[in-house]
Write a structure and sequence with these properties.
It is a single chain. By secondary structure, the chain is α/β, with parallel strands linked by helices. It is built from 16 helices and 13 strands. The protein has helices at 11-22, 34-41, 52-61, 71-75, 98-107, 127-135, 154-159, 171-178, 193-224, 228-236, 257-270, 276-300, 327-337, 362-366, 386-392, 407-412, and strands at 3-7, 26-31, 65-69, 80-83, 116-119, 141-144, 164-167, 188-191, 308-312, 341-345, 371-374, 397-400, 416-419. Strand 5 (116-119), helix 6 and strand 6 form a beta-alpha-beta unit. Helix 9 crosses helix 11.
Length: 423
Amino acid sequence: MSKIAVIGTGYVGLTTGACFAHMGHEVVCADIDEAKVASLQRGEVPILEPGLDDLVRQGVEGDRLRFVLGGAAAAADCEFAYLCVPTPQGEDGSADLSYLEAAAREIGPVLPSEAVVVNKSTVPVGSTKVVERAMGRHDVKVVSNPEFLREGSAVHDFLNPDRVVIGTDDRATAVKVSGLFLGLNAPLIVTDPASAETIKYAANSFLATKLSFINAMAAVCEAVGADIDDVVLGMGSDPRIGPQFLRPGPGWGGSCFPKDTRALVHIAEDAGYDFAMLKAVIEANTEQFELTADRVERHLGRSVEGVKVGVWGLTFKANTDDLRESPALEVAGRLQQRGAVLSCYDPAVKRSVNGLELVDSALEAATGAECVILLTEWDEFRWLDFDRVAEVMAAPNIIDTRNILDANDLRRRGFAIRGLGKP
């Protein structure tokens, strides 16, 4: 087994470190936040991710996983150093690599000779060269190993990957890095660093394109009286298309899709190509937020100004507490701008966000509301006592933007319910 340093204990870094420790490697994770390091060493995980808290606790208790302050303390005795630091994005889609460069400069002087530094952060094409220059070490190789983790299933995705991508021009280094993943049943793709860095952007941008397309098709279905579920079944049965990422919703968001689509547009522009199609995908997603807010007014037959609306779900997807670029927040904000009085509930959100009123239950959010809009697909919302919900609402109207509720059952209970792409 290998000695691995993980620089950065954010979402990607913590998952990477915990999973490598679970696989039997000796892992030291570093962060610059002293309080966070202390809490992680106690096995306390600051993010909601199924299974991650168990892996961290098991790793700490088994002495395979430690947390230290500062990258140098983690990297001094490692064979591999994974860089999992933030790469914030500017308005134009460009990435701020200052954290990446700072981490490389910190660990450069202490890395053992022949160690391998691995870029795990989502970084622009050419970032392996940036790290090499910042370290100033000719005896240390830099490799790209992009992550493909979905929030809500990150542990499963790491331990059961669709593929492992390694970007390096050195065959011996590729063999070294591939050895870290022994035991995982996944195809190994070894390519050059630029191609490896591009793969992550290309994959996420294509998935975002599928989502924007199916959201547009849902609008078409509503216009012509078709049922999007049947359309998706027919489309997804074609193996050239597949059923994944063909579920309509209020828009796409989170920490990856918005950032990676904008970044790929910027990368293309820097290289002299106008990626007009991807720009249209991004624009269509912004339009989807407005269209979702429009659906509430169309359903009610009037403006939402002064109307109490219950909001079910604020995170960008279920089984995470991540609010970054959440479509639910985008739609809620647009309803608020139109004058709606919002009462919001999300099982993973316990603090006020964007000035929205938070309540303690889905039933409380529905109380006195003329309409409820379901924006995040939490299972909790499927199994509510809807007879009780109808009793507390001022009018039994529901907009189900995730199509997870049994519309026929709710209509029998007296609800007027509108889904996406439904006649």
